[in-house]
Amino acid sequence: xxxxxxxxxxxxxxxxPQNQSSGRELWSSRMVFILAAxxxxxxxxxxxxxxxxxxxxxxxxFVLIYLLCIASIGIPIMMAEIMLGRRGRHxxxxxxxxxxRESGHSRSWGxxxxxxxxxxxxxxxxxxxxxxxxxxxIPRMASGAFQxxxxxxxxxxxxxxxxxxxxxxxxxxxxxxxxxMVVARGVRGGLEKAVTYLMPLLFVLLIILILYAIDTGHFSxxxxxxxxxxxxxxxxxxxxxxxxxxxxxxxxxxxxxxVYGSYLPSKTSIAQASISVAFMDTLVALMAGMxxxxxxxxxxxxxxxxxxLIFKTLPLAxxxxxxxxxxxxxxxILLVFAAWTSSISLIEPxxxxxxxxxxxxxxxxxxxxxxxxxxxGLLTVFxxxxxxxxxxxxxxxxxxGEFVILKDATAFxxxxxxxxxxxxxxxxxxxxxxxxxxMKREYSREELNISSGLYTLWSFLVRFxxxxxxVIVFLNAMGVVAFVRTIMGV
Length: 490
Hints:
Elements: H1 30-41, H2 44-56, H3 60-88, H4 92-102, H5 110-142, H6 151-162, H7 165-184, H8 186-214, H9 219-227, H10 236-248, H11 256-262, H12 270-298, H13 313-318, H14 324-358, H15 362-383, E1 392-398, E2 401-409, H16 411-438, H17 441-448, H18 452-477, H19 480-488
Antiparallel strand pairs: 1-2
C-alpha cells in the first residue's frame, strides 16, 4: 500500500470482502500477526496489573480462575473481533457499516467501530503518560538512585516524579513520539518490523529476569504462591477481578484487534492465531509473576501491595539486592517495551479511519493524531500535580443507601474509568452479539473455517457464555453488583 490512504470500494452482499483487499497491506505471515496481536495484548496490564491483582486475590486459585476466563471470554471474543476485521478489511467504523449492510442490518453498527476508535485514542492519551513513568525510572535505576533507600525514600522518588509536570510532559512526549514514529511507517515498514524485534527482545528480558529471580533463593516460594491453588482465599470479588482482567488483557473491544485482523491473510486460521495470542499473553503475565513474587518474598515485602507494586515496592527491593541496579534497569526496559508494543495498536484504529476519511497519507494522519493524543495526555499529566485537587464524585442515592460510582476522581481516574469500565466492556459485548447473533452463519463459518464441532462450541461461547460474563464485568465495574449484594445482604 502506498503512503496515501487507499480507497477500497465496498463489496456487494454476495461477495466476500476479504477478496477485495487489493491495495491494502497484509501481515507477511501468521507468526508476524501473532507477534503483533500479542504485542497489542501484552502491556502494562501483564507486567504491572496481573501480578498485583494476583497478590491481592491469594495467588494460585486466582490464576486458575483467570485461565478459565481466558478460555471462555477472551478467546471466543478475540476470534470474533479478528473475524469481523478480516471480513471487512477496513477501519473499524467502515468495517462495521459494511458488514451490517452485508447481513441486512442497520449501518448504526458503525457506532461500535467509533467506540473502538475513540477508546483507543483516549487510552493512549493516559497510557503514554504512565509509560513515561517507566521510561523515567530507567535512568534513575541505572544511576543507582534507589540503592539503599528505605520505603519513604522510594516513595519520595515517585512523588517527586509525578508532581513535576514539566518532567512528565517530557517523558510523555518522548514515548508518544516513539509510538507515532512506528505507526507512521505503515504495516510492513513500521508495525511488522517493530514487533519482529521488540517481542523476541521482550521474551529475552523476561528470561534473564527469571534467571535473576531464581538466584534470589525464594523462587520456589514464588512458584508455590503463583501456581498452588488455595480456594479458601477466593472471594466473589476475586472471581469478578479474574473475569475482568481476562477480558481486558487481550486488548478486546477497542478496535485494535479488529484492525490487526483486517491485515490478516485470508488463509490464516483465526482460531489457531487467537489461541496462540492468548497463550503468549498469558505466558508473559505468568513469567512476570515468576519474576516479581520471588523478589518480593526475598525482601519480606507484601505481594498484595496493589498498584504501587511496580513503582514503589520493586524499586525498594532492587535497591537492596545484589546487582539490583542492573536488573532493576532491565526490568523497567522490559516494562517500556511492553508498553510500546501496546501503544502502537491503540492508535492504529484512529489512523486507518483518518486515512480513509480524509484521504491523506499515513504520515500526515499520524502527525495529526499524535498532536491530539499529546494534548489529551496533558489532562492526565496535570491530574497528578497542577489539577490534582479538581475531582469528580458520582453517587447514586437509593432507599438502601448511597452508592459511590466515582469518588474524588481526577481527570486520569475519570478517563480510566470511562474507557476500562464502560467503553471496552460495551465494545466487547457488541462484538459478541453481532458475531454470534446477527452475522449470517454462512459468513462466520467461511471466515473461521473450523470443524463443525469447534464452530458449535465457539458459537455457544460467543452467543451465551462470553456476553453474560462481560455483562457481569460491566455491572460490577458500574457498582451494580455491589448494590445488588448489599440489598441481598450477601
